[in-house]
């Protein structure tokens, strides 16, 4: 069986490009992972997601363990077969839901007990159970089980949470075992504090993982604080392993993260925004619900080749959104995912050519121009 590996092919400043190899296919980095929370990227067919240029999807342990259950997915042939996606899948550990369901949970050294948001039933999630669920799903990249507080938080709370996560990381590593072809990523924690991030990184490297994530960011601290943390946190991680920033983000967040050495990202924003009429283009954000688009025959972005831009006018997209037609979410989500993958391809090419600074300056200058003028 082909083994999991990472080939770092070029650097330009802190920015990196390379290839993560897995038995189910290669992942070109920097990589953006569309989020398929419940075994689907909302409003998209799997083959449509692949057509945007995505090499990998993210699945959600918490949601899939509750419905339809990991055991059922395993009986039906695993998550790839279940959702008709033959490329790599990364699954999160359930740790983010541990944070977001604070009102429904009880946290102990062993793990977390919580009430289902679906029917109120009680469940327990531990490092061992998280590893079991992700194995049943057949995830190519498994995330260790962690806990992180929302920011801002006091230093004692951040330190306590980070150290608990490091103990859980060791248990996750033990429970994951030896699985050739599959990868386990550790998650660096520590809030915005350099010394906590250093302590977390040392613990993770001592345990040993196939890749490393920067966790506990994009949880309310703002872009400036996030970038400030990435300026030191990313460099702490091993150079020869993939670096994954969890839950990020907007186009300028993604570009800024890559400029600071990040290789992988995920976010629900392209699909969620598509369903609510918010469209990301090279000229900035377009709100298709606005009346200014009602008589506009022009595409969202004349330089975009996605189906929404190639075949439909702003006027039509405005109409179907206001009419609450399903095609609205489908077309706008496709466009957003296409644009995010276009950003990733542009960065990969620029880094390989040693022109990342030029590409980045052009990216920001074009966005600063704003959307086209109304007719």
Distance between the termini: 58 Å
Low-confidence spans:
none
Strand portion? 15-25%
State the domain count. 2
Backbone shape? globular
Mean pLDDT: 96
- The CATH superfamily of the largest domain is Queuine tRNA-ribosyltransferase-like
CATH topology of the largest domain: TIM Barrel
- The number of E-state strands comes to 16
**Largest sheet, described in full?**
8 strands, parallel, barrel
Radius of gyration equals: 20 Å
**What percent of the residues sit in helical stretches (DSSP H or I)?**
40-55%
CATH top level of the largest domain is Alpha Beta
Oligomer: single chain
User: What strand line-up does the widest sheet have?
Assistant: 4-5-6-10-11-12-13-14
Structural class: alpha/beta
Discrete helix count: 15
Q: Which CATH-level-2 architecture of the largest domain?
A: Alpha-Beta Barrel
What does this structure look like?
The protein folds into two domains: 5-266, Queuine tRNA-ribosyltransferase-like (TIM Barrel, Alpha-Beta Barrel); 274-368, no CATH class. It has 375 residues and is α/β, with parallel strands linked by helices. The protein has helices at residues 46-51, 61-66, 70-75, 79-83, 95-100, 127-137, 155-176, 194-207, 223-233, 251-259, 269-275, 307-311, 314-322, 326-353, 356-368, and strands at residues 5-12, 15-22, 25-29, 31-36, 57-59, 89-91, 105-107, 112-115, 122-125, 141-143, 183-188, 211-214, 243-245, 264-267, 278-281, 284-287. 48% of the residues are buried. The strands form four sheets. Strands 4-5-6-10-11-12-13-14 form an eight-stranded parallel β-barrel, surrounded by six helices. Strands 1-2-3 form a three-stranded antiparallel sheet. Strands 7-8-9 form a three-stranded antiparallel sheet. Helices cover 42% and strands 19% of the residues. The chain is globular. The longest helix is centred in the C-terminal third of the chain and has 28 residues, at 326-353. α8 links the parallel β11 (183-188) and β12 (211-214).
């Amino acid at each position: 069986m082909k083994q999991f590996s990472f080939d770092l092919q070029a650097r330009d400043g802190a920015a990196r490009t390379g290839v993560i190899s897995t038995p189910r296919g290669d992942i070109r980095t920097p990589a953006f992972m569309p989020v398929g929370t419940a075994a689907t990227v909302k409003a998209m067919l799997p083959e449509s997601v692949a057509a945007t240029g995505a090499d990998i999807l993210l699945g959600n342990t918490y949601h899939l363990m509750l419905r339809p259950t990991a055991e059922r997915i395993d009986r039906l042939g695993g998550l790839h077969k279940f959702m008709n996606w033959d490329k790599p899948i990364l699954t999160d550990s359930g740790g983010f839901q541990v944070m977001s369901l604070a009102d429904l949970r009880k946290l102990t050294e062993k793990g977390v007990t919580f009430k289902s948001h679906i029917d109120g039933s009680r469940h327990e999630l531990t490092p061992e159970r998280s590893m079991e669920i992700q194995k049943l799903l057949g995830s190519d990249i498994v995330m260790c089980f962690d806990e992180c507080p929302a920011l801002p938080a006091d230093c004692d709370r951040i330190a306590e949470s980070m150290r608990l996560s490091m103990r859980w990381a060791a248990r996750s590593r033990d429970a994951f075992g030896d699985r050739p072809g599959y990868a386990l990523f550790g998650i660096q924690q520590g809030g915005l504090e350099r010394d906590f991030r250093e302590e977390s990184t040392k613990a993770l490297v001592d345990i040993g993982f196939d890749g490393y994530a920067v966790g506990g960011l994009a949880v309310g601290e703002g872009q400036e604080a996030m970038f400030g943390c990435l300026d030191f946190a990313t460099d702490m991680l091993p150079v020869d392993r993939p670096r994954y920033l969890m839950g990020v983000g907007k186009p300028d967040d993604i570009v800024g993260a890559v400029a600071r050495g990040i290789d992988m990202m995920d976010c629900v924003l392209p699909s969620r925004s598509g369903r609510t009429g918010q469209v990301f283009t090279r000229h900035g954000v377009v709100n298709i619900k606005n009346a200014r688009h009602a008589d506009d025959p022009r595409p969202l972005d004349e330089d975009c080749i996605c189906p929404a831009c190639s075949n439909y006018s702003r006027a039509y997209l405005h109409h179907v959104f206001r009419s609450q037609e399903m095609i609205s979410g489908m077309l706008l989500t496709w466009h957003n995912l296409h644009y995010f993958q276009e950003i990733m391809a542009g960065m990969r090419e620029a880094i390989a050519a040693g022109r990342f600074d030029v590409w980045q300056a052009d990216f920001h200058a074009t966005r600063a121009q704003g959307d086209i003028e109304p007719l």
